[in-house]
Design a protein that fits this description.
Elements (H helix, E strand, L loop, with lengths): L7 E10 L8 E6 L13 E4 L2 E8 L3 E6 L1 H6 L7 E7 L18 E11 L2 E9 H4 L7 E4 L2 E10 L3 E8 L1 H6 L10 E6 L1 H19 L1
Antiparallel strand pairs: 1-2, 1-6, 2-5, 3-4, 3-6, 4-5, 7-8, 7-12, 8-11, 9-10, 9-12, 10-11
Length: 210
């Protein structure tokens, strides 16, 4: 589990194929930047742009993870060198500064607009129809591993558009500063919303059966 509070900006410095053929995954070598790896053991999890990955090798200031082709197909930002948001797994002794995040990307969104408004920035993202029902005004959403609050939701034929206000601090300490219209982002919806939807759908199934 994670909180969606980015601990450091790292950088994917290289990718090595794990096999041959189109179905092969890759091993990522990640420079951890300011992220302290002294308490990270092999087999532990680190969220990279919101995707939970298992550490398979580590040095004092870098680590490696294996990413399957399936994960590459379902995420953005893990298939090429570049900056990434990093967060170590949550411990029970830490403050929950964001919200409960599983590190399992639910789908990809597309940035529609990213522009400065006053001292802050407005980020507008189009979410696919499958995720639209989980997005609500003042609800939580994870974008590339960052826990954010939804300011506005507009349903569309394709799904929904949601707007987020980013304060200067968030821009400074995450890779969201690099977003542009047309770029895809990793989305994870609120964990509680998923359980509520499941419970309501089960209740509806039972009601119809009665």
């Amino acid at each position: 589990m994670f909180t969606g509070i980015v601990a450091a900006i790292g950088k994917i410095t290289s990718l090595a194929p794990l096999g041959t053929g189109t179905g092969a995954g890759v091993r990522l070598h990640v420079d951890a930047g300011a992220l302290d790896l002294s308490d990270v053991a092999l087999g532990e999890s680190i969220a990279i742009n919101g995707a939970c990955m298992t550490v398979v090798a580590r040095t004092a200031n870098a680590f490696e993870v294996d990413v399957s082709r399936e994960s590459l197909n379902c995420t953005a930002g893990l298939n090429a060198p570049g900056e990434v948001n990093l967060e170590k797994a949550l411990t029970l002794a830490e403050r929950l500064g964001g919200h409960l995040v599983s590190g399992h990307v639910d789908g990809l969104g597309t940035v529609l607009r990213f522009e400065q408004v006053g001292e802050s920035w407005e980020l507008v993202v189009e979410a696919p129809r499958a995720l639209a029902k989980y997005l609500a005004y003042k609800g939580s959403i994870v974008v590339n591993g960052v826990s954010l609050t939804v300011n506005r939701v507009t349903d569309t034929a394709a799904g929904c558009e949601f707007s987020i206000n980013l304060i200067p601090h968030t821009i400074e300490v995450t890779t969201l500063k690099h977003l542009r219209a047309g770029v895809q982002v990793n989305l994870e919806v609120d964990l509680i919303a998923r359980y509520v939807e499941r419970m309501l759908s089960s209740f509806e199934t039972v009601r119809k059966a009665d």
